[in-house]
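User: Can you predict the 3D structure for this chain?
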Amino acid sequence: MNATTAGTAEAPAAEGPLSRFRRKRAERNVSFPELVWLHHLRQQELENPHHRPYSGPAEKRYREFEERFEEQHGKIVSSYWCTSQASAIALTIRRRPFLLADVVRLHWATDWTTQDKPKLMSLLYEVEALSVRVQEVLRDTSRRLAIQSLFNVLSFLLGFSETERSSDERAVADVNRMVHQHLKRIETYYRGAAARSGQIVYVAGMLLGMVPMLLLALIAWITVARADDAVGIGIFCFCAGAVGALMSVMSRLSSGTVRVDWEFGKDTLRTLGALRPFVGAVFGLMTYLALKSGIVAIQVGDGSTYYYIVFAFAAGFSERLAQDMLLGSTVGAAAGHTRESPQEREPVPPEEELGDPASAPTG
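Assistant: Here is the predicted structure, written as structure tokens:
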């Protein structure tokens, strides 16, 4: 019976090398609360007289988990560890090659030391909520500056939570007021830096959207070089409209009139930026078609490729100008076809226009 059961049992599916690699990598991942708890056990082991300092099993286990944590998130460059409770914060930097910006992250686990101090817990929550926004929105130097400032605030709060004054209502109120003043300055800096960061991400998306336009421009140049083809000129105008849209945004960036919602996220802003040249390109192409079809009453002579490109660039640079030109010309043309000519209008007798003198009232 046992042999039959063993014979009919399905063998586990063979695990591929990629699956094994992912499983082993997931097994090596260490969360920050796990590292904080092991650090707390290590601190307790220091009080054991049977072990030399930093030589017991808890020390070895902590060092192993610390290595795995830094392998995942980068080296811990700043940290604060509570001595009485398993709570801590840490600042990590993961280096990236070439010109890519380093990844700076703030990690925290503070629930243990503030579980019986609701006011401090609420204050820590405000700081941590701002930290999340800073880490997701800011970039490069502005991100490092804001995160370092938040690290200083968090370490101050954790240090205060371990003192006897953390039970004094007046001391907690003073700390609350001082921390809110610092948070206000950090958030003001965050909003200014976030606006600049969002604009940079948006422009990066526009440059990404210009890549297919450059390929189309190369195709158009080959087409026009062979013959003065209307299709090639149309592609040229399509690309010129995209360039006009790019230059419009760049010029408005220098004047500070571009507004983007930075909390949409980098991926969304990058996608919106990549679509912006396409919008300008469509306006450039429609302007070319309007000029070519004669809807817009502008006379252009032979060999007018440059004129079309200039108008397409202007349409991409200013969509409002293109809308006024296209819609105004279309409405005017439609009105011209429906308006009655003077010859078609039925003549009105003077008596009906001015009134019959016989019917006028006499004095």
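The CA atoms of residues 105 and 135 lie 7 Å apart. The longest strand covers residues 75-81.
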